TrEMBL record:
Name used for this protein in its record: Lipoprotein signal peptidase
The species this protein was found in: Pseudomethylobacillus aquaticus
Job of this protein: This protein specifically catalyzes the removal of signal peptides from prolipoproteins.
Record keywords, A-Z: Aspartyl protease, Cell membrane, Hydrolase, Lipoprotein, Membrane, Protease, Transmembrane, Transmembrane helix
InterPro entries: Peptidase_A8
Parts of the chain that traverse the membrane: 67-85, 92-109, 129-149
MF annotations from Gene Ontology: aspartic-type endopeptidase activity
Main location: membrane
Length: 159
């Protein structure tokens, strides 16, 4: 049985979600909150908790942000699933949507089950530090980049 293209994109999202949740599980098992393991002079594995959005935006907002970001993630995920259903043959667009969807759902799972998002990839150079992130955040960034690239491509719709 041949899988419809739409379901293949959802399968890709599911695989990225599984990778995200598995890596976070490993970090939760191996590290206490705040632990650092230096890998190179510019990269550490850490265990941080992000109660806000990107770059800990609104992390100290008192708790309402968890519900707000969860609702936004659910609505955005429903929209992305609809868009994937409508345009599964537009490969770059669908790949971008699949990755953003996976990232949104991976982080949503953390917010709902833990109350925060687990971040563990930590890059730095001398006294300059990039905020810690995770596989879901990476998927969102790559997915958004692909969507931006796709937006500059000529439209395939009839004029």
């Amino acid at each position: 049985m041949k899988l419809p293209l739409f379901l293949k994109w959802l399968l890709l999202s599911s695989l990225v979600i599984a990778l995200d949740l598995y890596t976070k599980h490993l970090v939760l098992q191996a590290f206490a909150y705040g632990d650092h393991l230096t890998i190179t002079s510019y990269f550490d594995l850490v265990r941080f908790h992000n109660e806000g959005a990107a770059f800990s935006f609104l992390a100290d907002a008192g708790g309402w942000q968890k519900h707000f970001f969860s609702a936004v993630a659910m609505i955005a995920s429903a929209v992305m699933i609809y868009l994937l259903y409508k345009s599964p043959a537009q490969k770059l667009y669908a790949l971008g949507l699949s990755l953003v969807l996976a990232g949104a759902l991976g982080n949503l799972y953390d917010r709902v089950t833990l109350g925060y998002v687990v971040d563990f990839l930590f890059f730095h150079y001398e006294d300059y530090y990039w905020p810690a992130f995770n596989v879901a955040d990476s998927a969102i960034c790559v997915g958004v980049a692909l969507l931006l690239i796709d937006s500059f491509r000529p439209s395939r719709r009839p004029s």
